[in-house]
Design a protein that fits this description.
Elements (H helix, E strand, L loop, with lengths): L12 E5 L16 E5 L5 E4 L6 H15 L4 H21 L6 E5 L5 H8 L3 E6 L6 H6 L3 E2 L2 H4 L6 E7 L8 H11 E12 L4 H12 L19 E2 L2 H10 L3 E8 L14 H18 L5 E7 L1
Parallel strand pairs: 4-5, 4-7, 5-6, 7-8
Antiparallel strand pairs: 1-2, 2-3, 3-9, 8-11, 10-11
């Protein structure tokens, strides 16, 4: 099987390690899956390519993805503030009038609600149905992937994709499809985890010091949050520019969440989160926070 980087077509790689497995699909153990990093563009990926079907991925997401990511009211307020800020940033990047808005990987539809309030016509797409039943028609919900949706050319004035690209097996084909359905002058917003963030590097070091290096990897394809590929600023920038999009914004964020305020005082999570908060503040100074936001214009 030909081993090439899906982002830059590179042929030189660094071996990172083996991903953790999941008892839901024992056959995962039969394939010798490994994590590599492209030496040309820094993209992280799994080889051999994962062969789970869309129905199998759907089973993962519908069973525990949102339960694992369950948040308190305090967390939800932070996320709501971030969503509004991102949508306003996307809105300000448009060179055309607001029109149809696609949230690819819309989940529970929270972004769609905010987009509607800003005056967009919201469309939602996801491989799993987590919207309320009454919202499916209201938000033109499509159950499936973006290729199956087969939207017309130059259909959307804005596309929003938060924490989705790292879950897809075909990143470049997906980005090219999004470019096809985006209107000229329209804008695409993408948020991905920063695999090379200071916090990730620190956590990896801690697990190595306690001789559990395999417990914390760069990407986690078979356990929540099911990331089958990974990006940093270099690889994400390369992906967007290589398909002819104009990169307007590329920034890291998310290193200064005071999660310890939501922990029980004196508990282990309380002290752990206070310590990680310090790492997060340092990551702001070094511009190496836990997430990356990019906005590109067609």
């Amino acid at each position: 099987m030909d081993m090439r980087c899906k982002i830059c077509d590179g042929l030189l790689f660094k071996y990172i390690g083996k991903p953790r497995t999941n008892p839901v699909f024992p056959r995962i153990l039969k394939n010798d899956y490994r994590i590599f990093q492209c030496q040309r563009c820094d993209y992280y990926f799994i080889f051999p390519e994962i062969d789970l079907s869309q129905e199998e991925w759907k089973k993962f997401y519908e069973t525990d993805y949102f339960q694992v990511a369950k948040q308190t009211q305090w967390h939800k307020r932070i996320r709501q503030k971030e969503r509004i800020e991102r949508l306003e940033l996307l809105e300000n990047s448009l060179k055309i009038a607001k029109g149809k808005f696609l949230d690819m990987g819309c989940g529970e539809g929270l972004v769609l609600k905010n987009a509607e309030l800003l005056g967009f016509e919201p469309y939602g797409l996801d491989i799993a149905r987590n919207l309320e039943n009454t919202d499916s028609d209201r938000y033109h919900f499509f159950l499936g992937n973006v290729f199956e949706a087969n939207y017309p050319d130059e259909y959307f004035s804005a596309i929003y994709m938060d924490s989705v690209l790292e879950h897809l097996s075909n990143p470049m084909e997906t980005l090219k499809e999004l470019k096809r359905i985006l209107k000229p002058g329209g804008a695409l917003l993408i948020v991905v985890p920063n695999e090379d963030s200071m916090e990730n590097s620190f956590k990896k070091l801690c697990y190595r010091l306690i001789f559990q290096a395999g417990k914390y990897g760069k990407i986690k394809p078979f356990i929540a949050p099911y990331h089958i590929q990974g990006f940093n600023k270099k690889s994400l920038s390369h992906a967007l520019k290589s398909i002819g999009l104009n990169l307007l914004v590329l920034q890291d964020f998310g290193g200064n969440y005071p999660f310890w305020k939501n922990d029980r005082i004196g508990s282990k999570p309380f002290f752990a989160d206070i310590f990680l908060y310090g790492i997060g503040l340092l990551s702001i100074v070094w511009k190496n926070q836990i997430q990356i936001l990019a906005i590109a214009k067609k």
